[in-house]
Amino acid sequence: MDNETTTRRIPMALCAAALGLAAGMAHAQRTPLLVYTALETDSMKAYKTAFEKANPDIEIKWVRDSTGIITAKLMAEKANPQADVVAGVAASSLALLDQEGMLQPYQPKGFEALTRTYSDSKNPPAWVGMDVWAAAICFNTVEAKKRGLPKPETWKDLAKPIYKGAIVMPHPASSGTGFLDVSAWLQMWGEQDGWKYMDALHENIAQYQHSGSKPCKAAGTGEFPIGISFEFRAYQVVKSGAPVELVFPKEGLGWDIEATAIMKTTKKPEQAKRLADWFASKEANQITSNWWAVVAYPGVAQKLKGIPDNYEQLLVKNDLNWAAKNRERILAEWGKRYEGKSEAK
């Protein structure tokens, strides 16, 4: 090797080493943001990839569980909160955190473009909506035919004796979907008639499962003919080719909002606000529209197979603040009456 070649290669090697060091330092300088979530695992990767591409200096660190578990975890940590941001968690749960003084109100960039009724009514809002999710019934036509079960059309149909042992639904203390069902029935019919309905429904329940998705998955595989679930999972099960028809009961659908909020105690407020900004963006809403029939950004939602055109009109009148204030009392009463059929944890 001649001296000229050696001379050329030394600077090149130094340059490559410097670039590698710079890249390593840039990666090391990424700020981790701890985000508690109840998002479906199907969607978490898409959100993380898109956000980090737009914000390469921030890394999302998810802590994921069902809504009820995440809510209980946040309340247990009230004296020393760990999360920086809560995203994809029920607005009724975030309203509870707000009532406890745990959230930092913030109006994200572009907020004025969102449907106002799907976020906290205060200015600035304590939480900002991502999408609406609502109850749906997954009905396995093959298994139902074997058992001679008619397709239900209403919630009250499910209380008929013919469905005894044929129904699974989410546990309201573990699942946000289970809680929105219970809350809706109590608000639709009043507490006396709501509990009376649930007493009758309980006679037909095979199991209360600790996930909003699991009952529809169980209906899809034929484990049970009927699963009370929500439209995201119902749509996915139908899309997979399972012999399932979706039922949207005529009385109306319980619903809640997946939302984003910043914890008051975060030590990374700038990065937390950037994540809140991104979740309010059209880009994030376009990702959300792959799975949800109603999203916060108008005009972005897509037509999803099996979801009726009047879906949004089926949503019942729902007081999320009432649900938050009465959550503990409702769950205590529900547990006294029905805990015996709960799935083992």
Automatic annotation (TrEMBL):
Report the GO terms under cellular component. outer membrane-bounded periplasmic space
Keywords assigned by UniProt, alphabetized = Signal
Gene3D superfamilies from the UniProt entry: Periplasmic binding protein-like II
Q: What are the boundaries of the signal sequence?
A: 1-28
Query: Its GO biological process terms?
Result: thiamine transport
Q: Does the keyword Signal apply?
A: yes
MF terms in GO: thiamine binding; thiamine pyrophosphate binding
Matches recorded under InterPro entries: ABC_2-AEP-bd, Ferric-bd
Asked whether the UniProt record includes Signal among its keywords, one would answer: yes
Q: Which PANTHER family match?
A: ABC TRANSPORTER SUBSTRATE-BINDING PROTEIN, THIAMINE-BINDING PERIPLASMIC PROTEIN-RELATED
NCBIfam families attached to this UniProt entry: phnS2 (TIGR03261)
Q: What is this protein called?
A: 2-aminoethylphosphonate ABC transport system, 1-aminoethylphosphonate-binding protein component
Provenance organism = Alicycliphilus denitrificans (strain DSM 14773 / CIP 107495 / K601)
